[in-house]
Design goal:
mainly alpha; Growth Hormone, Chain: A; globular
């Protein structure tokens, strides 16, 4: 960890002399928002897609799972691929793959054809977020990186909330292929702007040693197996399934071998030595918790709204929208605050506020209304801005600029895996805690008092679910608070005005 003290981030000032920063920002944000929204917009259309293509629930679930599997394979390779193909070519190719795959998805006539196209789309989409983050971080000078990450965070954090709302509206008023077709014009514009405005930084050198096919195979197999276990574990009853057991063993063995091999390689496929920076390591641990909270609560809260409050998919999107608006507002506030306050203080505020919002939602009852959810969602949304912007800025602040592409790929993957872990843990506990609550409540029903047994059974089931949801909200709060001490050990940000220019070419 001593390397962090001596490492010097380098500010690449070329953008200020050439392409306007605003055009670079618009270009990468178009690709980012398109990819982020597409991750969640499909979820509300799953039933319609299954019905239209004659697919079972298990089969249609692969429309979402296939996309995520492809995502997690590409994310850690971001640094190597950027160096091999060049920043401009790689980002443009990712946009092209995503856009063409979107067209193909909308024309699919069978479920497995659609799943195949979604995997292709995932390979393109998996590169867009970390590459966009690296470009933004390099483009802005150190004293404006907080603002840059605030702009980036608008897409990364607000996008998942907009996706279900937009998807619900399209499904209610059009047909499911439109959720893919709307990507096409955005993708074309972003592709053209990338070729016109995104530079190829001269400090990114083409990797030596060629393609490490063994390393690529080990990494792809390990991450795909791990993501499958996290995505499908609850559905397949975890380790009672031979498939889950087998893939768990495969993921552990291949990833351990990959890590050992990578640490020995002179020119590794993924630069794991980035974890020599203490703040980067601690930031990624907190990133797992952030992903746990963001993805986990983003799953259980809509489930509560639909199963307990009986809201439609579109109404659920409207109920979640205030949180997205609060996140957008906090992004701008914290972007300015980064120049005045220690980023670690802002991270701590975000963690505490998010934990508090989850604890409040742990008091929801079966009679809860929209206003019972409104303010906790506002607090939660506001907290995300305080979490994401300073965490990203502080975590990447000590990384040399030539290693940023790899660092953003790793951090994006870690946050994604944290989210998958959160979803896996919370869905498993939801089933488990509901069953426990059911047994306790049902044992207390000794007389029907004239009520039909079916009605009583429904009431017990609903109350059991409410108890389970409340337990999960409070567990999420505890997980966030448990990560708070890590913030103290992160390295303080450097002077905001410090800029170290690259030597002239």
């Amino acid at each position: 960890m001593q390397a962090e003290a001596s490492a010097k981030p380098i500010f690449h000032a070329e953008h200020a002399r050439g392409t306007p920063v605003a055009l670079i920002t618009i270009t990468v944000m178009l690709g980012l928002i398109m990819a982020i929204i597409d991750t969640t917009i499909v979820n509300v259309a799953i039933n319609n897609i299954g019905g239209n293509l004659g697919a079972s629930v298990d089969e249609v679930s692969w429309v979402a799972t296939g996309y995520i599997l492809a995502n997690v394979i590409v994310m850690p390779l971001n640094g190597w691929l950027t160096a091999y193909f060049g920043r401009k070519n790689f980002y443009a190719a990712s946009l092209a793959i995503f856009t063409i795959a979107s067209l193909l998805c909308g024309t699919a006539t069978s479920i497995w054809q659609l799943v195949f196209y979604r995997v292709l789309q995932g390979f393109g989409g998996g590169a867009l977020q970390p590459t966009a983050q690296a470009i933004m971080f390099e483009t802005y000078p150190p004293n404006k990186r907080g603002a840059a990450m605030a702009i980036f965070g608008l897409g990364a954090m607000v996008g998942p909330a907009i996706g279900p709302l937009l998807g619900g509206y399209i499904i209610d008023n059009a047909s499911w292929p439109l959720i893919f077709f709307i990507n096409i014009p955005i993708g074309i514009v972003a592709f053209i702007m990338t070729l016109a405005f995104i530079p190829n930084p001269h400090f990114i050198a083409k990797p030596k040693g060629g393609i490490d096919w063994w390393g690529l195979g080990l990494l792809s197999t390990g991450l795909a197996a791990l993501q499958y276990v996290l995505e499908r574990g609850e559905h397949d009853d975890w380790f009672n399934s031979s498939t889950i057991v087998l893939l768990t063993v495969v993921s552990v063995v291949t990833l351990v071998v990959f890590i050992w091999k990578t640490l020995q390689d002179t020119h590794p496929l993924v630069n794991l030595k980035l974890f020599r920076f203490r703040t980067f390591t601690l930031g990624n641990i907190i990133g797992i918790v952030t992903g746990f909270g963001l993805f986990g609560t983003a799953l259980i809260l809509p489930l509560f709204l639909q199963s307990i409050m009986n809201l439609t998919a579109y109404d659920t999107g409207l109920a979640l929208l205030p949180g997205a608006i609060a996140t957008a507002a906090s992004m701008f506030i914290v972007g300015r605050a980064m120049n005045r306050f220690d980023g670690r203080l802002l991270i701590g505020i975000g963690i505490i506020l998010f934990a508090w919002s989850c604890w409040i939602m742990g008091n929801l009852t079966s009679d809860a209304g929209i206003m019972d959810v409104f303010w906790p969602r506002i607090y939660q949304g506001f907290a995300l801005g305080f979490l994401f912007v300073p965490l990203t800025t502080v975590m990447l602040g000590g990384i040399p600029v030539q290693e940023l592409a790899g660092a953003t790929g790793i951090s994006t993957l870690v946050r994604q895996l944290g989210g998958s872990l959160g979803i896996a843990v919370l869905t498993t506990l939801l089933t488990h805690e509901s069953a426990i609550a059911w047994n306790v409540l049902a044992s207390g029903v000794t007389q029907t008092h004239g009520y039909p047994l079916t009605l009583l059974s429904g009431m017990v089931a609903q109350q059991s679910a409410v108890i389970a949801y409340d337990y999960l909200f409070r567990l999420s709060a505890i997980v966030f608070i448990a990560s708070l001490p890590l913030v103290i050990f992160m390295k303080p940000p450097r002077s905001h005005g410090a800029q170290i220019p690259l030597p002239a070419e």
